[in-house]
Structures are given as C-alpha cells and as structure tokens.
Amino acid sequence: MDVAESIAFDVLDVLGGAFTLVKPNATLDGSLPLRAARACLPLLDGNRFGFQIQLTQRLTFSRTFAGVKLGALPEMLSRAVCGSMPRVFSEGLFDARGAWADAFAGGIAHRAGRRGISLFTGLFVRPRPGYWLRLGHAGNRRNLAFDVEERWIANSNEFAPLVVTMTFHPDAPFPLSIHGEIATLMPLVPNVRFDRLSRADAEKLGRAHVDFYDEKYFAQKKRGSTRKYRLMVDRAEQPTLPQSSGFATLGPSCIERDMAKAFLTARGIEERASAGNGESDVDVMAFKNALSLSCYFDGHHAEVKPDQTALGEFASQTCDAWKSVFGAEFVNQHRGAMWYFTKYVTPHQPGEPYFFVKPPALVSTAAEHSVLIEGIPGRGYSVLRGVVGTDVFHAVPAVFRVDQPLRWIDIPAGTELAKMIPFPRRVMEAGFDVVEWRHAPRMMGG
Fold first, then answer.
1. Residues 6+ apart with CB under 8 A from 413
2. 3-state DSSP: the chain helix, strand, coil percent, rounded to 5?
3. How many other CB atoms are there within 10 angstroms of residue 350's CB atom?
4. Residue 272 carries which DSSP code?
5. Ranges in the chain annotated CATH 2.70.40.10
6. Which segments of 118-227 does DSSP mark as H helices, in order?
7. Strand pairing partners for 364?
8. What is the CATH number of domain 195-259+283-426?
C-alpha cells in the first residue's frame, strides 16, 4: 500500500465528544521556547506527530486503600455513558467474552494495580491496511502526575476500544483533577526494517557525520544556531544510504532491539501472537543510558554530573571503535565530531532546563524516512519526543528536560531513555475518517 494515502485509520465515537483526537501544532500553541521554535526542527516535528487524545470534561481522581478511583462524572458525561454503554455492549463493540466487557461493565474506568487506572475514551479505532497505531504519553506538554502505558493497534479488520492506562506517580497530589491532552495516538507503518549495518555502510555514515560537524559548524555554533540540519532536510538532499535502513554502533552498546508488545483488541490487551497482526511487525530500538548521571536545575543553569570514571571508559571505547573503522589519523583530524559522542552530555543555554545525551551510534533510513525518538519519562525528568531525518543526518540524541528544579535527580546507567521507530515521513500528514454512530448522545449539544 502507498503510505502517502491521506487516511490512516477510522474512528467511531460512542460518547459524543467526551474525548477527541486533535492534531497538535509544532509550537504547542506558542508554549515552546523561542529559540527552539526557530531552530529545532526535530522537536517541532515531534510535537506535531500524531493526534492528541484530549479530555473535554474535567475528571477527578482520588486515592484509596484499594487504589486510584475515578470520582463522580460531570453530568453531561454521566448521561452520555448511561445512554451509550448499554448499546456498546448490545452491538458487540466490546467482545462479550473478553476482558473489556468485565472491566467496563460499571462505567468507563477500571483499576490497574495500586497506582493505575484504565480509562475508556469512548473512541474505537481501526487502522487502515498498511498502518498500525501506537498509543503513548501526550508528548512534550504532558501532565507530569501520571505516565501512560504503551499500547499498539494492528488489526485492520476490527474496531479496538481506545483505552488509556495511566499510572500515577507516588507523589501525585490527590484528589487530582485532569482535563486536556492525556495521550497521543500515532499512525506508523509496519515492516520498515531496522537492521545492523555492514562495516562499509557504517563508514559512509561516519563520514557523513564528520562532514556535518566540521570546523565551520562549530565556528557558527559559537555565534548561535546554524540551522544546518534544517536546511539539509528542507532541501531533501540525497540520502546517505539510499537502499539501507539500520544502525551501526561505534562505541559501548546502549541501543538494543525491542518490539511492540501489548496490543489493544476488541477483547482486551493481548500479546502480539493473538493480536491479529499476522506476519507484520514494527521495528523498535531501545536507547538505554550509557552511564550514571545526576542532574540539577536552579532556574538558570542545568548542571549534569556524569560518573567520571564511567565517562572516561565510555570515551576511550568510543574513540577505539572509530579508530578501528577509520584509523587514528582520521579520528585526530575530526576531534569536534568525535567530541559530540565522547563527552556524552551536552547542556543547553542558560535559563533552559535541558541537556542532551548521545548514544555512540549512527542510524540510517531510506529516502524520505525518519526516526521517531519517543522519550521515556522518569521521576523528576522527561525525555522529549523528537523526529530526526535519519536519511541525511545520523545521530539520535535524547533531550532531557528537568521537571523538578532545586533537587538532584539521579538517572542510573541502563535506564531506558527512549524508543526509536523508523517510519516514512509522509505518515506525519496522514489523517483519519470518522465513522458515524447514529443517534449517539452529543457532549456539546447538536
């Protein structure tokens, strides 16, 4: 199927707008820092990728001895639930023999462990052939009180309920009121491969990396943003490896192969073998923190303290890996490009609670393909969502945001920081069709 098709999935709304799917804009309604809005294309593309799941009514949650509990629903939502849910069951949108039928027999919320709750949004979604859907957190303007469990929808032959499972942080201030964006639904394309590259391909990527981070780049960087990456992507330059998609590790290994694990179906949450996805797959890579870090933000500076012994070993192993491919003279001639990897951590400008970490790996995708870097939040920090045009630029940094100032936050070695997923860039423009459910109650009248 041609992924340029404009419609990626179908949506059926049974609660009349209690939850909606909204296309976000690149600057998050102007809330992005000005410098990033002007220059950071990966962040802008990450912001606008997918659809925000927005809660149009304010819901209140409390914590009891049994776990998290949803409070009384707003009157209009309560009426919509009472009017629509019996029909949802009678029409078989929830499989009568499945887990959803039990979970939501009494309403739209179901406890998920001591700190979690699964929320039925009233939306059913069905990917079109050639697409999968990924459900994850709300991205770079998310509610810090909870995390969202990753889910996938792969079966194009049935509608699956869009159920958001939220895990609340131990220090979340209950009772807690929530509205607005709570999660993101993204269309992706299966069978875009992500293989380990040959030595010859790794050499081509390495040369492209040092060509980007040349002396002119660092001289311009001292004066401000270079916009070099943005110009490369906008000009649609020839891909470094037109026929190859994959990664090469040139240093300590901190990227591991992963997979889509939990799927939403009409019956419940199922493993991949029973989720109706056939032989299809989405290649996922996990980036794990290479060495222990502690970070701190005081409102003016973001300070990062890596384990110095581990950092020295990391830098030495990275240099040795590059020398084994390119030779010592090449590495010595391109110290700036090497420094990008060997120092591992790069802070942002004063006043910004951000810093980068960079795995010593180079990633390539075919022409007009990118990699989604889906940050995994931790306690006290977020790792931002970004999209990198890896057909022409091959580093895949993770950008941290310190969410709790005036305290040291520890990030141990081996902590999973981000998922990396290759996809055709045209998917970012794909939309959805609304399937009419006649006579459904409307939240906002009409």
1. 289, 290, 291, 292, 307, 310
2. 25, 35, 40
3. 9
4. G
5. 195-259+283-426
6. 199-212, 215-221
7. 246
8. 2.70.40.10
Q: Which fold has domain 7-188+430-435?
A: Deoxyuridine 5'-Triphosphate Nucleotidohydrolase; Chain A (2.70.40)
Q: What is the largest CA-CA distance in the chain?
A: 74
Which two structure tokens, joined as six digits, stand for 434? 């609304």
Q: Report which residue type is found at 432.
A: F
Residue 227 confidence (pLDDT) above 90: no
Cα(351)–Cα(332) distance, integer angstroms: 34
Query: 53 Cβ partners below 8 Å, 6+ apart?
Result: 19, 20, 21, 121, 123, 135, 138, 162, 164, 181, 182, 183, 184, 185
Q: How far apart are CA 339 and CA 103, in angstroms?
A: 52
pLDDT > 50? residue 345: yes
Question: 280 near 156, Cβ under 8 Å?
Answer: no
Reference 16, options 60, 81, 74, 107; nearest CA is 81
* pTM, full prediction: 0.93
Measured CA to CA, the distance from residue 53 to residue 114 in angstroms comes to 24
Q: Which residues of 199-238 are buried (b: 16+ CB within 10 A; e: fewer)?
A: eebbebbbebbbebbeeeeeeeeeeeebebbbebbeeeee
Q: Which two three-digit tokens encode residue 393?
A: 């630029």
DSSP string covering 396-427: --EEEEE-STTS-EEE-TT-EEEEEEEEEGGG
DSSP for residue 107: S
pLDDT of residue 2: 52
Could you count the other beta carbons within 10 Å of the beta carbon of residue 311? 19
pLDDT tier, 225 (very low <50, low <70, confident <90, very high otherwise)? confident
Question: N- to C-terminal Cα distance for the chain?
Answer: 37
CA distances from 445 to 53, 77, 80, 122 (A): 20, 12, 11, 17
